[in-house]
Structures are given as C-alpha cells and as structure tokens.
Amino acid sequence: MSIEQLAETALAMVAPGKGIIAIDESSGTIAKRFAGVGIPDSEENRRAYRELLLTTPDLSEYISGAILFDETIRQKTKDGVPFAQYMSDNGMIPGIKVDRGTHALAGFPGEVVTEGLDGLRARLEEYYKLGARFAKWRAVINIGDDVPSGTCIEANAHALARYAALCQEQGLVPMVEPEVLIDGNHDIDTCFEVSEVTLRALFDALYNQNVALEGTILKASMVLPGKDSGDTTSVEEVAEATLMCLKSAVPAILPGIVFLSGGQSDDDATAHLDAMNRMGPNPWPLSFSYGRAMQSAALKLWSQDLVGNYDAAQATVFERAKANGLAALGQWTR
Ligand code: 13P
User: Fold this and answer.
1) Which residues face 41 on adjacent strands?
2) 44: which of 105, 124, 146, 222 is 20 to 30 A away, CA to CA?
3) From the CA of 268, how far away is ligand 1's center (Å)?
4) Which family would the database say this protein is a member of (predicted)?
5) How is 241-256 classified by DSSP, letter by letter?
6) Pocket (CB within 6 angstroms of ligand 1)
C-alpha cells in the first residue's frame, strides 16, 4: 500500500462538508447505552440498531465513513449484505476500532493505558480483507490532582504510534485518538495545557516511529472546562482555545482533524465545530467523528417503538449528519 493511497483515503474521510459517524461502541458500552433507554442488549438488537444507523437514506451526503466494532464488521443487513459491503456500495468508507480498551497503568493510580498491540498485525490484515480502510485507537488522558503524569502521556503516545505504524503497513489509515476527558473540575486552561502536551508527545512518537502523517487522521477532543467545574464558556472561547492548541501542536501536513463529542450536548458539539470553521481558514479540514452527538436522539426515539419509530429515528440521524456536515463548512445555523 502506497502512502498516496493512504493519503487518498484520509482526504476522502474529511471531504468538504462530510464527517464520520462513530458506531464502534464496545460490547460493554453499547450495553450501557441500551440500558439507558431500556433496550434489551441482544446481538439482534445491536445488529438492527447498527443497520438503522448505516442505512439512513442519503446518509453519505454528509457522512464519509463509519467506525465499526469487531462484532459489527462481521454483521449483515437483514437482506444479507455485510455492513462493510453496504457502506462501500453506498459511498461510505468502513473503519474499525482496533484497540482493546483502557487498563490501569501499573504504578500510576488514577491513570490508564490503552491495550491491544499484541496480535494487532494479524487482526489488521483480517479487517482489511473484511473491507476496512481505516482504523481507530483511543487513548484516554484523565485530568485530576497530579494527573496526568508524563509517564502516562508517553506510554499512550508510544502505543498510538505503534498502532499507527502497523495500520499503515497493512494499508489502513490510522485515526489516532488521544482523548483528554471532560470529567473533573479543572478549568479550560488546564485542559489546554494537558491537550497541548499530549498532542506534542503524540506527534513526536509518530515521527519517531516513521508514521506518514499524510496518511493519518487525528481524532481530537475539544478544549473545554471540566464538566464539574461549574465554569461557563462561550462557544467562541472553546473554539478559539481548541484552535490555538491544535495550531501549536499539530503539523500542517496532516490531512484532517475530526473531533469526538465526549459528553457535550448535541448542540454544543455542532456549535463548537461550526465556530472553529467560521474562524478559518485553518491548516487542516476540521470535521466530526461523533458517537453520542450523532446517535443519542435517534437511539432515544427508536427505543420508544422499535418498529413504529424506525423511519423517524433514521430521519433524526440524517438531521444530525446534516447539521454537523454544515458545521464542518462553518455554515450551520441553529
Ligand atoms: P463520542 O462522540 O460519543 O465521544 O464518541 C466518539 C468516539 O468514538 C470515542 O472514542
């Protein structure tokens, strides 16, 4: 796989006015989301729900690709078409979550490191055969008293870079996701500092491990005050802080940056993205790779009547895709 082909995929992922829908919740997370709205967590319900999302009519107008979970990439529509095949046939790039979640970082209470490197080369080879063209690995950085440590940031950056190098070797675009969590009572300046240091460590590690940035996508968290801080920040303040942080730490050669929603309200996630694009031109396309901010409204609606609300739930997915697609162009109006 040439760098040119990886770069082509990466650019298609952030095509103007398009973003990614993250539907890669692990078994534990989807069970939690379903429990929250009273849907029994069965394999068939998980399949049906992912089918609802992926087959939303005209989704590809605003969605360039979707991140799937291991179970999901092996599932099919009710008509027997593998989801990855359905996506390619309908102009969307299949992606796959390949990390194996966060685990306590030994010796560093309150901090976590993402696992999943063992056997990753063989898994990536299989995912490519199943149709995946990009992959995702999420590292989690907590903010708290004396946290994060430099060791935690380094360990996660190192793992992200090893994953990214393996992805490129196997023909998949790595989406590198160092999520600085919104949990805590820290202020926005603390989030800025932690995000900046985390991103700098990540790009150092990518450089050291010969990862081609032209074929890499960053999935970033926005710079926000902690959710328990009680601080209120304007949309412009968040957009300015996030842009300044990214400009300070992310090389301009990167083909694009997509954001996670990370517990923001649907409207905030859209408004912040829109504001950043209005403040452009920026060095990279800025788009979305939202999970909750793309799905929450649809999941709630669907849960109230799995058959009767099917079409309305899909219409909600489309509305969220359209709003975020316009925000990726700085053209969203509330
Ligand atoms: P949220 O947008 O719900 O934060 O999820 C995005 C994601 O993929 C986190 O890894």
Assistant:
1) none
2) 124
3) 14
4) Belongs to the class I fructose-bisphosphate aldolase family.
5) HHHHHHHHHS-TTSS-
6) 22, 24, 138, 177, 260-262, 290-293
Measured distance CA(190)–CA(193) in Å, rounded: 5
User: Which residue in 258, 317, 323, 293 sits closest to 56, CA to CA?
Assistant: 317
> For the segment 27-45, what is each residue's pLDDT rounded down to a tens digit?
999 999 999 999 999 999 9
Contact 125, 83 (CB under 8 A): no
The pLDDT of 177-185, averaged and rounded, is: 98
Q: Any catalytic annotation for residue 177?
A: yes
Ligand 1: residue of 260, 266, 288 to mutate (most ligand atoms within 8 A of CB) is 260
Give the residue, by CA position, lying nearest to ligand 1 atom 1: 291
Give the per-residue pLDDT at 144. Answer: 97
Q: What is the ipTM metric for this complex?
A: 0.94
Separation of CA 162 and ligand 1 centre (Å): 21
* Candidate list 177, 196, 300, 319, residue with the active-site label: 177
Q: How many angstroms separate the CA atoms of 251 and 281, rounded?
A: 15
To the query of whether residue 18 is one of the catalytic residues in this protein, the response is: no
CA–CA gap between residue 210 and residue 165 (Å, rounded): 7
- In this prediction the pTM is 0.98
Q: What is the pLDDT of residues 281-296, one digit of tens each?
A: 999 999 999 999 999 9
Count of alpha carbons within 13 angstroms of residue 54, beta-carbon side: 34
pLDDT score, position 243 = 98
Q: What are the residue ranges of helices labelled H in the chain?
A: 3-13, 27-37, 43-54, 70-73, 83-89, 120-129, 150-169, 188-208, 235-249, 266-278, 292-304, 310-327
**Cis peptide, bond prior to residue 281, ω within 30 of zero:** yes
Distance 289 CA to ligand 1 centre (A): 7
Tell me the CA–centroid distance for residue 329 and ligand 1, in Å.
Answer: 21
Phi and psi at 292, nearest 5°, equal -60, -45
